[in-house]
Structures are given as structure tokens and as C-alpha cells.
Amino acid sequence: MLIVPAIDLSGGACVRLFQGRFDAVTDYGDPFVRLRAFERAGAEWVHIVDLDGARQGAPAQSDLIARLAAETNLKIQCGGGARSRLHAQALLDAGVSRVVVGSVAVRDPGAVCGWIDAFGVDRICLALDVRARGDAWEVAADGWTAGGGKTLSDVLQCYPHQSLHVLVTDISRDGALTGPNLTLMRTVRALRPDIRLQASGGVSSLVDLAALRDAGADAAIVGRALYENRFTLEAALAL
User: Fold this and answer.
1) Which CATH number fits domain 2-238: 3.90.1140.10, 2.40.10.240, 3.20.20.70, 3.30.70.890?
2) pTM for this structure?
3) Is the pLDDT of residue 23 over 70?
């Protein structure tokens, strides 16, 4: 399982939100410092989110992301406000290896299928951020401020691509350090055994990472647990 450290950007700083709430922000300082530390630790990828872009509906920190890409040899998976093919192209041109798309992947799967066909299945990752709604999982949109009106199963059915990258986050656990939702991950894996499943939300320990691996995740996004020294990135990579 691939371990992918995360950098969330707001106002040029590295921050973390609690459950996607912009009124619950912790500032972790200079993103360049974090990026260099992740590279020294031996990471292969970094997951960068333009939180301001996610909130505004269009990339808002593209210049900063381009400078981060120029600074590192890490491969960058990046999203936040990428809601058009031009947005995706601009991120790829800035040095990003894979573009993460969320709201538009829920609301206009036909368009995103076209992007996948144009850029390649390895250059696009769907970000499906979910909340429990009865017996189903509703996919959120607009920086988690709105319901997308579709279930996780509905959205996955719109994308027939083999080996598609899909990042699934249980919003209730994001930034909470309460452990990942293993049942959710097993559900996604059963629905689509062919996808490359990335897990996000709740990781607080090396035990959590091992459990995600055993639940079928191909990658785990790790943020707050690293920033609060619950474990080192070196130890996670060794696992």
C-alpha cells in the first residue's frame, strides 16, 4: 500500500481542517518546509489540496502549486476547484502528475470521462467525499458544503474505466484522528474491485494503516497524524 502525505493549502499556508470546516483550521506553517521533509523521508507522492480553490469553485493557488512542483522530485497529486478541462490541463502543465476532481466528477461524469480519455486514466483521480445517509453514502460537493444528490454507488457506476484512481473520504472522520472507516473501504472494494482505491480520513496510527491495507486500500492519504507526530512518515513507509 502506498503512503501519501498530504498538504492542504489555504492562504499560502499548510493547514488542516476538521471535518472539512473552514471555521476549524489548524495552521502548520510553510508548505515548502513540509514538502522537503516528506521528500527526505522517502515518500514517492504528495497529495496537495487547494482549499481556497475548492471553496471558490476554481483553482486559487496555482502559482504556489507550480512553485511547489518545481521545488520537488515528488510526484504530485493535486486538486481543489478543478471543475473544467482547462483547470485540469493547467495543473498538469504546472507540473502536477495527477489531477483530483471532486464536485464535477459527481455532477458531470460525462465530462470527466472525456478528461480521462484525453489525459489518460493515470492522470485523473476521482475524489468521492461521503456522508452516511441512512443505509447509503451520499457524495458531497462544493468543498463539502453541499450534497451532491448522488450515492457513492451511483457515481462509481458512471465510470467504467479499469484501474481508475478513486480517493474515498469519510467526511465525519477527516482530521478527527478517530480511525479510518474500514467498513466503507471494504464496501467500495466490493463494489469496484478493479479500481485503485485511495483511503482518506481518520488515520491516527500505524495500526490504522495496516488495517487499511488489509481492507483493500491501494493507498492511504495521511495528514494530521503526521503533523501531530502520531507516527513518523519513515515508519509508515517502512510498514
Assistant:
1) 3.20.20.70
2) 0.92
3) no
